[in-house]
């Protein structure tokens, strides 16, 4: 007889949220797959990976990529303000001159918030960071020249199990960072964006 305690059944609210995630629509130019969720963060968790689809029709994370993790804890941790927490990131290459724009991080954050709000996602306690990375190659990498990357890491607490709008907003964020046109009104692009999809 095993001394291990039985694994508790997933909470109904978490199962409903997972079902909503799995039914959520994604853009044709974004490949979304379920991946193993990180362990030990919460009693319930589900994770997705999303990569921009290139001109070849294949997912190409170099064009834009992201991760979405849904956490559930029925004890409602104080920092979450509820039983659910979403943790996500999205990143894409950026033209060097745009990376020098002092407002580009603010714009990246607004893309996420606008995407959530336009879709009617219900949430509280949003927080995050936007990071610009500038790089210059030397030696064998000198031929690559200067490069830049824009990354947004964010978390928020969904206030219902209807996670579809949250997934759609995250997917829109990845594609917007990659320079692809938004699919809904209310989300605007930076001028002179690019995406190397050819």
Structure write-up:
The chain has 198 residues and is an alpha+beta fold. It has one domain (12-177). 23% of the residues lie in helices and 30% in strands. It has 4 helices and 6 strands. It has helices at 12-23, 96-99, 104-118, 164-177, and strands at 30-35, 44-52, 65-72, 84-93, 123-136, 146-158. A 6-stranded antiparallel beta sheet has the order 1-2-3-4-6-5, with helices on one face. Strand 1 and strand 2 (44-52) form a beta hairpin. Helix 3 runs antiparallel to helix 4. The longest helix is centred in the middle third of the chain and has 15 residues, at 104-118.
Distance between the termini: 60 Å
- The largest beta-sheet arranges its strands as 1-2-3-4-6-5
Low-confidence stretches: 186-198
The DSSP helix count reads 4
Provide mean pLDDT, rounded. 84
Structural category: alpha+beta
Oligomer: single chain
What is the percentage of strand-forming residues?
25-35%
Query: Helix and strand succession?
Result: HEEEEHHEEH
Count the strands?
A: 6
The profile of the biggest β sheet is: 6 strands, antiparallel
Fraction of residues in helices? 10-25%
What Rg is obtained from the alpha carbons, in whole angstroms?
18 Å
């Amino acid at each position: 007889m095993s001394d291990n305690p039985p694994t508790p059944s997933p909470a109904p609210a978490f199962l409903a949220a997972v079902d909503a995630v799995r039914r959520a629509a994604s853009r044709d130019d974004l490949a979304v797959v379920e991946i193993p969720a990180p362990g030990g963060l919460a009693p319930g968790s589900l994770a997705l990976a999303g990569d921009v689809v290139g001109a070849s029709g294949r997912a190409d994370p170099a064009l834009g990529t992201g991760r979405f993790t849904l956490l559930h804890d029925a004890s409602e941790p104080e920092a979450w303000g509820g039983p659910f927490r979403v943790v996500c990131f999205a990143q894409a290459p950026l033209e060097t001159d745009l990376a020098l724009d002092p407002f580009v991080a603010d714009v990246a954050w607004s893309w996420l918030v606008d995407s959530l709000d336009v879709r009617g996602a219900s949430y509280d306690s949003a927080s995050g960071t936007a990071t610009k990375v500038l790089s210059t190659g030397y030696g064998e990498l000198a031929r690559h020249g200067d490069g830049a990357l824009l990354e947004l890491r964010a978390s928020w607490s969904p206030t219902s199990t209807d996670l579809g709008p949250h997934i759609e907003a995250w997917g829109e964020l990845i594609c917007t960072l990659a320079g692809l046109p938004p699919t809904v009104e209310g989300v605007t692009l930076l001028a002179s964006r690019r995406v190397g999809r050819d």
